[in-house]
Amino acid sequence: MIVLRRFMNNPLRNFNYLIACEETRQTIALDPLDGEGMVQLAAEHGLDIKLIVNTHEHHDHIDGNPAVQAATGAPIWAHKNALGKIPNQAHGLSAGDVIELGTLRLNVLFTPGHTPVHLCLLAPVSERDNVPVLFSGDTLFNACAGNCYNGGNVDTMYDTFVAQLLPLPDETLLYPGHDYMKNNLAFALDREPGNAMAGYWADQVSAFAPDDMPVMTLGQEREYNPFLRLHEPLIRARLKEQFPQLGDGDRDVFRALRSLRDQW
Ligand SMILES: [Zn+2]
C-alpha cells in the first residue's frame, strides 16, 4: 500500500490522502480538499484515482470532490447515513464493508461521534503490509479526540472509542484528518504535566513543518493521548479539581476532557 499525505495549509489544518495499490496504481482520494492538488499529486506519482472516499460530511473533507471527480470520473463513497448530505455520493458504505481496489483491502469502521455519519478506514495486515493502518478522519487525532460540537455527540464518540478504536493493536499506524499535534500535546501536558512521552514528543515536533509530522502508532498514542488514558490517576485527580462532581466512570472522564479541550 502506498500512502501519500499532504498538509493543506488551511486554517483548519487538514491532511489529504492518496491511498494506492502498489501493483495496479489504482488509488483512493480520501477527504479531498484541494482536489486539483490531489489530481496533480497522483499524476506526479503515476497513480490512477479510481475512487473518492469521505470520512464524513464536513465541508473541509468534501470540498475537493468535484475537482477530483471532474478530472478522473471517480465515484464518491461515504457512509450510507451520509447519503443526501454529501453531493453526488454514489454509494453508501456500512460497517464491515471491505473496499477492494487492486490489492488494496480497506475495512470500513462505522465511527460516529464527531458527526453521526463518520467512518474510518482500516487497512489490515496483509502479505505486503506488516502493520495495520488506520485512517481516522476526525475521530482520533494525535494526542486528542475529535470535537463533537458541529453535529456530533460526545457520548457517541466515547462509545466509538471503546468499541472500535481501543481494541486496535498497538502497532497500528495512525493517519488522522488534521494536524493538531503540537496544540494537542500541549493540552496533554496540561492534563498530565509529568508525562515524559508527551514532553518528549512536544519537544521533538516543535520545529517540524506539518508535512513532516511523524506517523505515530496507537501504542505511542496510548502513552500520551489523554483520551486513551482515562484510568490515569493524575488525569482524574486534576479533573476532580475543576469538576468536583465528576463521576468515576470512564465516560465521565472522557466527557470532561472533551469539554476542557473545547475551551483550550
Ligand atoms: Zn469534521
Automatic annotation (TrEMBL):
<keyword id="KW-0862">Zinc</keyword>
<protein>
    <recommendedName>
        <fullName>hydroxyacylglutathione hydrolase</fullName>
        <ecNumber>3.1.2.6</ecNumber>
    </recommendedName>
</protein>
<dbReference type="GO" id="GO:0004416">
    <property type="term" value="F:hydroxyacylglutathione hydrolase activity"/>
</dbReference>
<dbReference type="InterPro" id="IPR001279">
    <property type="entry name" value="Metallo-B-lactamas"/>
</dbReference>
<dbReference type="InterPro" id="IPR036866">
    <property type="entry name" value="RibonucZ/Hydroxyglut_hydro"/>
</dbReference>
<dbReference type="InterPro" id="IPR032282">
    <property type="entry name" value="HAGH_C"/>
</dbReference>
<keyword id="KW-0378">Hydrolase</keyword>
<dbReference type="InterPro" id="IPR035680">
    <property type="entry name" value="Clx_II_MBL"/>
</dbReference>
<comment type="similarity">
    <text>Belongs to the metallo-beta-lactamase superfamily. Glyoxalase II family.</text>
</comment>
<dbReference type="InterPro" id="IPR050110">
    <property type="entry name" value="Glyoxalase_II_hydrolase"/>
</dbReference>
<dbReference type="Pfam" id="PF00753">
    <property type="entry name" value="Lactamase_B"/>
</dbReference>
<dbReference type="Pfam" id="PF16123">
    <property type="entry name" value="HAGH_C"/>
</dbReference>
<keyword id="KW-0479">Metal-binding</keyword>
<comment type="pathway">
    <text>Secondary metabolite metabolism; methylglyoxal degradation; (R)-lactate from methylglyoxal: step 2/2.</text>
</comment>
<dbReference type="GO" id="GO:0046872">
    <property type="term" value="F:metal ion binding"/>
</dbReference>
<feature type="domain" description="Metallo-beta-lactamase">
    <location>
        <begin position="13"/>
        <end position="178"/>
    </location>
</feature>
